Amino acid sequence: MTRIRDSVIKVIPPANLLGYALASFVLIVIPGPSVLFVVGRALAYGRRTALATVCGNSAGNYVVAICVAIGVGALVQRSAQVFTVVKLAGALYLVWLGIQAFRRRGTLASAFAEATEARSDRRAVREGFLVGVTNPKALILFGAVLPQFVNRAAGHVPLQMLLLSLVSIMIGLVSDSTWGVAASRLRAWFARSPRRFALVGGAGGLAMIGVGVSVALTGRKS
């Protein structure tokens, strides 16, 4: 274990690790598509679905990090056309999920009373994954910010990027889970009344639609 630790420190200087952690923290804690999507899931379906969504979203974000590490992310970052396609795909998916949540807002009270099935958890993970892998914020973090903290002189650049990106994933897990739990507690108060439940379910759907529109209208950042 000591040799592994020393090897990692040699490849990734502590200053680089700390600098990237701080940069990631600032970018992640600012609510973006992932945070608002998790909040929408929590308001519409509760804490369990929100946390499952967080896990899927984190997995999707790490796929983006892997793509960046092997060079695909660099292509997306440099190509305005490819970046736009990925951004619009994520935006359309968010809007579609928001519309579905809004249309089904009247059934949330009965769904809340039933036990959550394993399939629902898998669906939440899958939806979170698709949002995470198409999130423009992840592309910016891993495609533009991450490479600045790589110690190129030490070599093993892809490995460094994969290790550093795990820092962002862990920060995102904690941050998004906190948002999801907080939103689910607010939802519990609304759940005391079927009418309130329909209102909060509709609000969650509208929030996701708003996020999708916001993502679609957001310009590409260099």
Descriptive account of the structure:
- With 222 residues, the protein is mostly helical.
- The protein is elongated and about 60 Å long.
- It has helices at 2-11, 14-29, 33-45, 47-69, 72-78, 80-103, 108-113, 118-133, 136-145, 157-190, 194-217.
- The termini are far apart.
- 82% of the residues lie in helices and 0% in strands.
- It contains eleven helices and no strands.
- Helix 3 (33-45) runs parallel beside helix 10 (157-190) and helix 4 (47-69) packs parallel to helix 8.
Name the descriptors:
222 residues, mainly alpha, 82% helix, 0% strand
Structural class: mainly alpha
Number of strands: 0
Total helices: the number is 11
Q: What helical percentage do the residues reach?
A: over 70%
Number of domains: 1
Shape: elongated
Mean pLDDT: 75
Q: What is the beta-strand fraction?
A: under 5%
Order of helices and strands: HHHHHHHHHHH
As residue ranges, the low-confidence spans are: 114-119
The major sheet is characterized as:
none
Radius of gyration: 19 Å
- First-last Cα distance: 40 Å
In short:
The chain is mainly α and 222 residues long. It has helices at residues 2-11, 14-29, 33-45, 47-69, 72-78, 80-103, 108-113, 118-133, 136-145, 157-190, 194-217.
Topology:
Blueprint: H1 2-11, H2 14-29, H3 33-45, H4 47-69, H5 72-78, H6 80-103, H7 108-113, H8 118-133, H9 136-145, H10 157-190, H11 194-217
